[in-house]
Specification:
single chain; Heme Oxygenase, Chain A; 10 helices; binds fe (ii) ion; globular; mainly alpha
């Protein structure tokens, strides 16, 4: 499945084609969809092989780590978010991301994993999620990276993996995905209201482009990790990255 296909079910929910205020957002999202669609198959998705139970646990750990970090870094932004509308929307997002973390940890707990204490992220994930996302200088830069670029990538990945999941994890994603669509719309709203100058648009484009690059490096690291753990399906049409 390509990101373009997923985009019709996720990113499109945040878009309203033809709206003058959302034109810049639509241009950014269309650019991301085109770039994702042009990727080689092994870089286009985390999920280029059947998902075994051990890999499911690895993916749940990654996703729970991502959700927890999102709640943490968005929470830290709140004291430095002067726009009242963005403050209220981001505060709701903190609650959502914490709930997503809880849902995924419950899925892990059912599989005998009660914490992430012994799980270690790849260096590329730390650069992308622990370093880059929190690093935005202001609301526009933060939302451009996480809500415009990251949320679309994450939601597309969830849509892609869902058919390969057991029922309890698919049910958890069904609770998470509507929130992620809200987070995408949040990104669109903040850009439409507050990204008003050529200088702002240049900063936002840079954050979108760099996030996209870090996301690709993160996905390659995921495939490398699965190969290292012996969880890759070497008979798959597209072998994992080594
Ligand atoms: Fe989330
Ligand atoms: Fe989110």
């Amino acid at each position: 499945m390509t990101a373009t296909t997923a985009g019709t079910g996720t990113a499109a929910g945040a878009r309203s084609r033809g709206s003058a205020t959302g034109q810049f957002y639509d241009e950014l999202v269309t650019g991301l969809e085109t770039a994702r669609a042009a990727l080689p198959a092994e870089e286009a998705s985390f999920f280029n092989r059947p998902m075994s139970e051990p890999e499911l646990i690895e993916w749940l750990c990654f996703q729970a780590y991502y959700e927890k970090r999102a709640a943490e870094f968005i929470g830290r932004w709140l004291a430095d978010t002067p726009q009242d509308d963005a403050f209220t929307l981001l505060a709701r997002q903190v609650r959502d991301e914490a709930r997503h973390y809880q849902l995924l940890m419950r899925a892990l707990d059912r599989r005998g994993v009660s914490s992430l204490d012994r799980w270690r992220p790849e260096p590329e994930w730390e650069e992308w999620i622990d370093g880059w996302y929190p690093s935005g200088a202001d609301t526009l830069e933060r939302v451009a990276a996480h809500n415009v670029t990251g949320e679309i990538g994450a939601a597309n990945a969830m849509v892609a993996i869902r058919p390969r999941l057991p029922a309890d994890v698919a049910a958890a994603l069904d609770k998470i995905l509507p929130d992620e669509q809200f987070h995408m719309r949040l990104g669109r709203t903040v850009l439409a209201r507050h990204c008003t100058s050529d200088e702002d648009r240049a900063r936002v484009r840079h954050r979108v482009q760099r996030t996209f690059e870090l996301e690709q490096a993160g996905r390659a690291a995921y495939n490398r990790r699965m190969a290292r753990l012996g969880l890759a399906d070497l008979d798959a049409d597209t072998p994992p990255l080594a």
